[in-house]
Amino acid sequence: MDAPALSTSTELPPQPVCPLYGVDDRGNPLLIGSAVLLQIADAHFLLTAAHVLDTNARSTLYYGVGGPLQVLEGVAHKSGLSDGTSRDEDRNDVGFMELKPRIAAHLSHGHRFLNVCHLQPNEAVRPSSIYELRGYPETRSKRNPTTKKVRPGPFSYLASPAGTSRYAALHVGPRSHLLLRFERKNSFNETGQRFTAPLPHGMSGGGVWKRRLDSQGDDLLQTGWLVGIAMEYDAQENVIVATRISLFLEAIRARFPGLANEIPKCHTLRVNVSVDRVAG
């Protein structure tokens, strides 16, 4: 089966967020999630939600930077599950892969990798903080079933933090997670007009940035610091659930001890991470 093709958009400068795809039984590309690209020393990683990487059990995973989609090869590391539990019960949902050099080089043609100076693992949430969620909603991914081409549609959403009372309802803690208000039907575009934001399905694995107060542009390497990875949209609570970047960093430290001195430490949370290793 020939690989589906990707038609890229040039609306934004090259970003550290990329879409991930599977295919249906007819070979049509399906956007399944988003991922953040990170370089630590000489190693290159793809960070996403564990449930996005779980899709590999049903479909080959692909990435693309123009031209045919490419197979995402490597070893998936995912937050461990206790006996008798499912991914739905995994509130951390941590997933990452070390990228082979040729895949990292290929991704660099259309994206950029963050490095550790672009991270903030010790983010202190304040009511006045503004966060940016960026990923690839499935509803903005345009498919042509005849040519089997797909055009990804990146989306950014500026949000304030949700109140601390929401954490208990969602069974997460403010030291390990971030909750962002996502008032989908009461959103505003860049010109101040009210609109309905797209459903964030497909944005799982996308990045959450703490915006600099004086930032104005669209370049995520300049406008703030990565503080989390989006995991879930709770429509009842009107929030996006994100796992803090500190859990990802500690998971990488556990699997790649040789990088320990290059990884920023988390001072706000004592982290004990269990990660499963699965060939992908």
Verbal overview:
With 280 residues, this protein is mainly beta. The protein has a single domain (5-279), classed as Beta Barrel (Thrombin, subunit H), CATH 2.40.10. The protein contains five helices and 20 strands. It has a six-stranded antiparallel β-sheet with strand order 2-3-4-9-8-20. It has a six-stranded antiparallel β-sheet with strand order 13-10-17-18-19-14. Strands 6-1-12-11 form a four-stranded mixed β-sheet, with no helix packed on it. It is globular and about 45 Å long. Residues 5-10 have low confidence and may be disordered.
- Class by alpha and beta content: mainly beta
CATH topology: Thrombin, subunit H
- Whole-angstrom Rg: 18 Å
| Alpha plus pi helix count | 5
Shape: globular
Number of domains: 1
Helix content: 10-25%
Considering the protein shown, what is the CATH homologous superfamily?
Trypsin-like serine proteases
How many DSSP-defined strands? Answer: 20
User: What kind of sheet is the major sheet?
Assistant: 6 strands, antiparallel
Strand order of the main beta sheet, please?
2-3-4-9-8-20
Give the integer mean of the pLDDT values.
86
**H and E order:** EEEEHEEEEEHEEEEHEEEEHEEHE
CATH architectural group: Beta Barrel
What separation lies between the terminal Cα atoms? 19 Å
